[in-house]
Amino acid sequence: MTVNIRQVGPCFAGEVSGVDLTKPLSREEVAAIEAGMDQYAVLVFHDQPVTDEQQIAFSNNFGRIEPAVGSNITKPEERRLRVELADVSNLKKGNELYDRDDRRRMFNLGNRLWHSDSSFRATPAKYSLLSGRSIPSKGGDTEFADMRAAYDALDDETKAEIEDLICEHSLMFSRGLLGFAEFTPEEKAMFKPVRQRLVRTHPVSGRKSLFLASHAGAIVGWPMPEARAFLRDLTEHATQRQFVYTHKWRLHDLVMWDNRQTMHRARAFRDTKEPRDMRRTTIAGDGPTVQQEAA
């Protein structure tokens, strides 16, 4: 079969056909998918009823899988899935729905803010691959913003101003936006802020993009209020409708995106009434963004 991709978003995002992710891929198929990622930044694969093992095998074609530790407040004994899979569902161990006041649920509500996966790590993520195993009857869409197009639309003065800015990212910043501020000493140490460039250059296409996220809560050398107001303005610019693709999930969709070129957010649904079982593998990046740019 031949891998085919057609654009489905306003300026990015592609729908892939001609590939079965439940089976091993050829080198040609992997190369075609990587080329599609470089061009479209988000790829949608319909009708892919993968198992956890098959999702992990598919993900391994694109780099090292980032273990799902250090990115949430779930204790090891509370984990529902194996460590290669980030559990972005509304389910706890035993596949029961979270109670409304469950601390883990409230922490996970941060996924409804615009973000880039693992920007709060010293080495942020390259790709994310999300498999929809159970879909709610209404809501629960995922929105993606093209940070390349958003950068291109900035005026020259703003581009010059942000070119060398360094931001600090932390899960404490994003969760604090929702009023979640009670962290244990261990969590504060785990979520210690890291530094990332505000402008990134894609290693293949050479295109520049904004590296924004709700995790970004400071700009090095700027007063905090000024930095947060500036980052909010940039985020509002970057998430205008002309830059956004909304994915409406179908059962057994797998969506893959490039965190170096996009932001995303989950949309609300009746999460205390219906299950939304979403399992993500995350491909680690090549290193801290400051070092990448310097190189």
Word description of this protein:
The protein has a seven-stranded mixed β-sheet, covered by helices on one side. The protein has one domain (about 5-295): Double-stranded beta-helix. It is α+β, with helices and mostly antiparallel strands and about 300 residues long. It contains nine helices and 17 strands.
Instruction: Enumerate the strands of the largest sheet in spatial order, edge to edge or round the barrel.
Output: 1-2-3-15-7-17-4
The CATH architecture term is 4-Layer Sandwich
The computed structural class is alpha+beta
Low-confidence stretches: none
Number of helical stretches of at least 4 residues: 9
Largest sheet: 7 strands, mixed
Q: What shape does the CA trace take?
A: globular
Short structural description:
The protein is α+β, with helices and mostly antiparallel strands and 295 residues long. The chain has nine helices and 17 strands. The strands form five sheets. It has a seven-stranded mixed β-sheet with strand order 1-2-3-15-7-17-4, with helices on one face.
Which helices and strands, and how do they pair?
Layout: E1 4-7, E2 14-17, H1 27-40, E3 42-45, H2 52-59, E4 86-87, E5 91-92, E6 96-97, H3 103-108, E7 125-134, E8 142-146, H4 147-152, H5 156-162, E9 166-169, H6 171-176, H7 185-190, E10 194-197, E11 199-201, E12 208-210, E13 216-219, H8 224-238, E14 244-247, E15 254-258, E16 262-266, E17 277-284, H9 289-294
Parallel strand pairs: 2-3
Antiparallel strand pairs: 1-2, 3-15, 4-17, 5-6, 7-15, 7-17, 8-14, 8-16, 9-10, 9-13, 11-12
